[in-house]
Amino acid sequence: MQIGELAGLTGASARALRHYEERGPLIPERTSGSYRDYAVEDVVKVVQIKTMIDAGLSTASIRHYLDCARADDHGAVSLEMCPSLRVELSSIAERLVRKQAELRETQQRLDELTSED
Predict the structure, then answer these.
(1) How many independent structural domains does the chain possess?
(2) Residue span of the structural domain in which 49 resides
(3) Which pTM value belongs to this model?
(4) Spatial contact of 26 and 42, defined as CB atoms under 8 Å apart
């Protein structure tokens, strides 16, 4: 299938699909005219990639851990906990906790500034 059809089936933009190809987690075949030619299996792969991106993983990490992603019969994506993937996900979670604390502190400072009126 061509890029527009894959985009329609997955909800990913054609631009995002080209980005996934450029970064390595999605590698389509090419036709004799150099058009991208995606397989049916790429629909699930794109859903997996999008799910992993939404969880905070970079495309470099996704390329490394995509084999840990599985889809069930209903298309739901789950990740097997490869030890190194667990470490990466924990690192992302810790970064989010730190960022949330920073945001709370910033909000508190803003509240203090606005309450002085």
Answers:
(1) 2
(2) 1-80
(3) 0.74
(4) yes
